[in-house]
Amino acid sequence: MLRHRRAEQITEQILALCQKELPDYMVPEAVIYRDDLPRTSRGKVDYRELEQMALDWNL
């Protein structure tokens, strides 16, 4: 529970900073925490998998 509360606080801080420093169209709609990024067999970031995850989360 404490970890969840801390993540909420950090998310609020990130979004507040983005709203302050970025134009409106660049402010993210959500912040997602992951331990790691999906990788291809060659070790590069798998952007297709990231896109699918965003679709699964309705982002």
Tally of helical segments: 2
Structural class: mainly alpha
Major beta sheet summary: none
Order of helices and strands: HH
Work out the number of β strands.
0
Which outline best applies?
extended
Q: What are the low-pLDDT stretches, counting only 5+ consecutive residues below 50?
A: none
- Beta-strand residue percentage: under 5%
Percent range of helical residues: 40-55%
Distance between the termini: 24 Å
Q: Overall mean pLDDT score?
A: 88
Q: C-alpha Rg, in Å?
A: 14 Å
Could you please describe the fold and organization of this structure?
It contains 2 helices and no strands. It has helices spanning 2-21, 47-56. The mean pLDDT is 88.
